[in-house]
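Backbone-to-sequence.
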C-alpha cells in the first residue's frame, strides 16, 4: 500500500498513515464509525472510558457519541462509516470487537482501493456488519468513574500506573476506606480494583511496546515485579504474548504494503 495515502475526512470511509502521538480531539458523528489500526495501535476515549485497540481489534462508536482518538506508534488507520440506518444491528454503545481474518480483509478492501463494481462496497460493508454481530470484545475497556473518591484513586494511578500502593493506602488520599472503595469499583466500574489497575497497566504496556520498548523494560515501567508475571497478565487480557504482539507489529508494514 502506498505511503502517500492521506487520512480520510472525518465523515468518510478511507485510510492513511498517522504519526506516533497523533490526537484527534473530541467530536461526534451522525453515522456510526469503525476505526481499525492495520498497523500500530489506537485509543478511543468517551465519557464511558477508554478502549485501546491493537491490530487485532477494531473500535466501534455509534452515532451521537462524543469521542476522541490517539494513535500510538506509526499507525496505518482505517476508517469505515456505518450509516445510521444500519447501526441498529450493532451494540448501541462504544465498544471494541475482535478482528477475524475475514473482517480484517473486508476492512482493508473497503479502505484500500476504489470501488470497481457498483454495489461492491455496500456488499463488503454487509460482511463487516455480519462479522461484528458477535458479542464485542470488552477486555481492553477501561471505564472511568464519576464518584469523587474513585476519581482521586484512579487519578493517582493514571499519573503513575506502576504505583504499588494498596487500595487502603490510596484510600487515605481519597478520604475513603478500603471496603467502601472496593464496593464502588464493583458497583460503578463493574470490576475489582485489581482488575481495573491491571487493564490500566496493559493500556500503558501496549503503548510502550508499540514504541519499541523491550518486554522487560515495559514490565518494570508498568508495575510488574518480573517479566513472567507481565507476560501472563498481558496474554490473558490481549490474547497474545507481548513478544508475539511486537513481532506482529514489526512484520505488518511489509504485509500491508504488499496488499
Amino acid at each position: 500500500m502506498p505511503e502517500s495515502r492521506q487520512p480520510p475526512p472525518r465523515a468518510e470511509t478511507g485510510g492513511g498513515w498517522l504519526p506516533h502521538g497523533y490526537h484527534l480531539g473530541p467530536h461526534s458523528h451522525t453515522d456510526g464509525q469503525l476505526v481499525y489500526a492495520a498497523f500500530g495501535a489506537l485509543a478511543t476515549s468517551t465519557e464511558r472510558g477508554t478502549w485501546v485497540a491493537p491490530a487485532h481489534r477494531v473500535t466501534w462508536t455509534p452515532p451521537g457519541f462524543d469521542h476522541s482518538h490517539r494513535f500510538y506508534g506509526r499507525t496505518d488507520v482505517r476508517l469505515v462509516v456505518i450509516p445510521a440506518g444500519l447501526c441498529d444491528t450493532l451494540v448501541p454503545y462504544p465498544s471494541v470487537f475482535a478482528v477475524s481474518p475475514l473482517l480484517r480483509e473486508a476492512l482493508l478492501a473497503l479502505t484500500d482501493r476504489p470501488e470497481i463494481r457498483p454495489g461492491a462496497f455496500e456488499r463488503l460493508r454487509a460482511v463487516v456488519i455480519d462479522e461484528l454481530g458477535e458479542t464485542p470484545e470488552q477486555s481492553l475497556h477501561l471505564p472511568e468513574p464519576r464518584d469523587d473518591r474513585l476519581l482521586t484513586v484512579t487519578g493517582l494511578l493514571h499519573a503513575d500506573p506502576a504505583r504499588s500502593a494498596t487500595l487502603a493506602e490510596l484510600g487515605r488520599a481519597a478520604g475513603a476506606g478500603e471496603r467502601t472503595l472496593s464496593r464502588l469499583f464493583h458497583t460503578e466500574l463493574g470490576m475489582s480494583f485489581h482488575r481495573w489497575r491491571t487493564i490500566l497497566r496493559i493500556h500503558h504496556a501496549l503503548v510502550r511496546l508499540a514504541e519499541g520498548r523491550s518486554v522487560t523494560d515495559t514490565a518494570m515501567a508498568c508495575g510488574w515485579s518480573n517479566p513472567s508475571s507481565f507476560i501472563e497478565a498481558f496474554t490473558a487480557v490481549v490474547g497474545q504474548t507481548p513478544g508475539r504482539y511486537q513481532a506482529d507489529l514489526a512484520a505488518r508494514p511489509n504485509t500491508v504494503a504488499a496488499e
